[in-house]
Design brief:
By secondary structure, the protein is α/β, with parallel strands linked by helices. The chain is about 40% helix and about 15% strand. α4 (about 55-75) runs antiparallel to α5, α7 (about 190-195) runs parallel beside α8 and α12 (about 345-360) packs across α13.
């Protein structure tokens, strides 16, 4: 019997109507799990709480200890919520002693990207402008997670106002990659991805306007999901680009992402983009069959210009997928004519115009350059009057919204798309800082493979699929029609099991000399 089978048997022995995780994830043990509890998956940690072998307080102290030990080097966390988290853990432990378990997340510590509102800690957006800002109330998704029993253990670092894909630009300094501290974590949810990879939390939330959940997930060797537009409320997150923004979960396994997503979804009448949908049992998804799925591989433009090591890892992953799915073939994925990034100017400036005019020096260099560029773009007399430009903006927003409603028709003859999450490996921190603190606004790499799924509103899941020769993680994206999260998660979990990537994590002081993965035992 391997380790996971032993955990499954122990969880089943805990039994009864209270043991939801025992039958689904097999993530508890008769004795306290060996090693540091911070290295468990969400499912394992939740199972241990159900079995009574670990408490919420045990898990919270383990995460806080990992933050104390690793954050000075990684810089993934802006605000550890020590007192709040320990108090919440104690209350949840008291509930557990009476046999009450709120959900599969009862007593599990998670982190939040620090642009998601919390009423009991600052929400800084990684900016000097908001370093002391404490919101009046929690974001909608934070309320849902707290109600589910998740413990908010920390607020995670990010690119200032979420405008950098490397996370080199933050008032609190760049986030470093736990697999190799010389390299960036990816952005803009870089603190969330790095914190999960380094064991500072069991899962985390990020926000994604063009790849900001999936890029750090790919580069930090963890799993990240951008849900379908409107499935998760954005209320209390931002400021950002309303029609592109989505809050998404990051965790070590697809199963863990499924558990987080189940607690995050729900209609929010105060968020105009929120969609009312029937509830899905995402916790049951990872075991669903995938043998009938038709996989499409969109070679152009998503495979153009790939780093050879990325190309090799994704090619190997495609061969693995061919052994578990019904079919796999190259396809032409047509998304229609969509605007470039210029249409975001009014969205960003609607929030930043006044503070940028009053305190431009409070912004980090890259953010300041972007705001200046967008301001000049709207003020340029050669480009037409401001009212004309705003009219163009409204027309583009309508075009994007219409495409988001009709994009499912592009899945003609296939069910799922598979492609590289990023075309390159993560750059070094030195290169990213030099680029983002320079005079320009161009990123070091293309977000072409991630941005399109924000523009068309589709769900996209990034899963680890390999390591470079220097031990840097590589990610693969599984995307599908609107509200196909169940299918994406099922295929991602099946691939994860077959490839042996389940719960892989960096080892060692600087993250080098990594195992390929923990596999299934």
């Amino acid at each position: 019997m391997n380790r996971r089978e032993l955990l499954f048997a122990a969880a089943a022995a805990a039994g009864g109507g209270q043991s939801l995780l025992a039958s689904r994830s097999g993530a508890a043990a008769l004795d306290k799990p060996a090693g540091d509890p911070a290295d468990l998956t969400i499912a394992e940690a939740a199972g241990a709480i159900r079995a009574g072998t670990l408490t919420a307080s045990d898990l919270t102290k383990a995460c806080l200890g990992r933050i104390d030990a690793r954050n000075p080097r990684i810089n993934a966390i802006i605000t550890p919520m020590r007192e709040q988290a320990l108090a919440q853990a104690a209350a949840l432990d008291a509930e557990a002693r009476t046999g009450r378990f709120r959900s599969a997340l009862h007593g599990v510590p998670i982190a939040l990207k620090d642009n998601i509102d919390t009423a009991d800690a600052p929400t800084t957006n990684a900016s000097a402008l908001l370093k002391d800002h404490v919101p009046a109330k929690d974001a909608h998704v934070v309320r849902r997670l707290r109600e589910a029993g998740a413990i908010i253990v920390a607020k995670a670092n990010l690119a200032e106002f979420a405008v950098s894909p490397t996370n080199a630009t933050s008032h609190y300094g760049p986030v470093r990659n736990p697999w190799s501290e010389d390299h960036v974590s990816g952005g803009s949810s870089g603190g969330s991805g790095a914190a999960v990879a380094a064991g500072m939390c069991f899962g985390a939330l990020g926000t994604d306007s063009g790849g900001s959940v999936r890029i750090p997930s790919a580069w930090c060797g963890v799993v990240g999901l951008k849900p379908t537009a409107g499935l998760v409320s954005n209320g209390g997150a931002g400021p950002g680009i309303a029609i592109l923004d989505t809050i998404g979960p990051i965790a070590r396994t697809v199963e863990d992402v499924s558990l987080l997503l189940g607690a995050m979804t729900g209609y929010d009448p105060f968020d105009p983009a929120s969609v009312e949908r029937p509830r899905e049992d995402y916790a049951a998804v990872p075991g669903r069959p995938v043998s009938a799925l038709r996989i499409g591989v969109p070679r152009r433009p998503f495979f153009d210009g790939l780093d050879p090591e990325v190309a090799g890892a994704v090619d190997t992953a495609l061969k693995t997928l061919a052994t578990i799915a019904g079919s796999i073939r190259d396809v032409d994925f047509r998304w229609g004519d969509l605007p470039e990034g210029a249409f975001t100017a009014p969205d960003l400036l609607s929030y930043h115009s006044r503070p940028f005019a009053e305190r431009p020096d409070a912004y980090q260099t890259r953010t300041r350059n972007i705001m200046q560029m967008l301001t000049e773009m709207l003020d340029d007399p050669k480009g037409g009057s401001p009212s004309h430009k705003l009219g163009e903006h409204v027309a583009m927003i309508r075009s994007i919204a219409q495409r988001q409603r009709t994009i499912d028709a592009a899945f003609d003859g296939f069910d799922i798309l598979v492609l590289p999450t990023t075309k390159t490996l993560p750059p070094t921190v030195t290169a990213a800082v030099a680029s983002e603190y320079g005079p320009g606004v161009e990123p070091l790499f293309s977000i072409e493979n991630t941005m399109i799924f924000n523009l068309v509103g589709l769900p996209a899941l990034s899963v680890p699929c390999g390591l470079s020769k220097d031990g840097l993680p590589i990610g693969m994206t599984i995307a599908g029609p609107r509200f196909s999260e169940v299918t994406l998660l099922a295929l991602g979990a099946a691939y994860e099991r077959r490839a042996g990537w389940r719960g892989s994590r960096p080892v060692g002081r600087d993250g080098r000399n990594n195992p390929v993965g923990r596999g299934e035992g």
